[in-house]
TrEMBL record:
CDD domains: Flavin_utilizing_monoxygenases
Protein species of origin: Alcanivorax quisquiliarum
One Pfam family per UniProt: Bac_luciferase
Database matches in PANTHER family: LUCIFERASE-LIKE MONOOXYGENASE
Gene3D superfamilies: Luciferase-like domain
Family named by the database record: To bacterial alkanal monooxygenase alpha and beta chains.
Domain Luciferase-like intervals: 9-305
Record's protein name: LLM class flavin-dependent oxidoreductase
Amino acid sequence: MTRLQDTAFSMLDLIPVRDTGSEAEALADSLALARHVEALGFHRYWLAEHHNMDGVASSATAVLAGYIAGGTSRIRVGSGGVMLPNHAPLVVAEQFGTLATLYPGRIDLGLGRAPGADRTTLRALRRSPLDGEDFPEEVGELQRLLGPVQPGQRLVAVPGANTQVPIWLLGSSLFSAQLAAQRGLPYSFASHFAPRLLHQALRVYRDNFQPSDVLDKPYAMVGVPLYAAPTDEEAEFLATTAYQRALALLRGHSLKLVPPVPSMASRWLPHEQEAVGNMYGLAVVGGPERVRQRLEMIVEQTGADELIFTCDMYELAHRQRACDIVAALREAA
């Protein structure tokens, strides 16, 4: 038995929209993928929050969580994450309290501190660029609203109170790692797009962890971009869809998924190639044997309790196949 066999596998979905597709098709693909990974034994399926991005259909996170939970039967469903600066804690508590009431024991609430939007979008969300500075206080308010009603409590989330929806803190820096440690909460690091501080953040989280009613020891999840295929060559080819999307993000172009290409060499400048490479520094790209070695290395070096994959391949069938490959590797470990 290896550490890989003891590591839970989960999926993070940004609900990518293809260049020739529609938002409706992207949503249908996401439900199909959720059902597929549920059958494979994946532990949870999370939806991201992004706004004003033409190739990303994951804006109404709570609505999407209900859609996925309603279309599946066992897998945990939640947010990866709700960007708390964009929302009043009471509204979040009511939304996820409602989800937890509809789907008991299956809902997670992952919280991020970044707004995940530009200034124009922030204004449209009626938020200020300074929102987020009170993140610890708002996390505390959410914990109270989702917890037991206290004598004399004047503000009650209905539904929400007494649901004890599990709260996760998400981040790509050290701030949320420190806060998750102080509050004794599970922690997820966004190494699927910003791996630079991964090891430092995990060390801060574990070294400062304070046991709580939620956890008696640290529990860490690590984000991993996944591009698995039957051969290394095919995986490298399919991963170019993600590289083109990252390049489009750097250039301010459309983020819709585009088909893979034989080579990226003529498509980016050296500094762009380096930037995309940094974003995908933790990516797992290859055939089964290379993927196994890479996953075992990540788990060994990070001590992750759980890996949460992103898998923005152009074809749904290729995403499903990639999940088949890692599920089989975990089973055989």
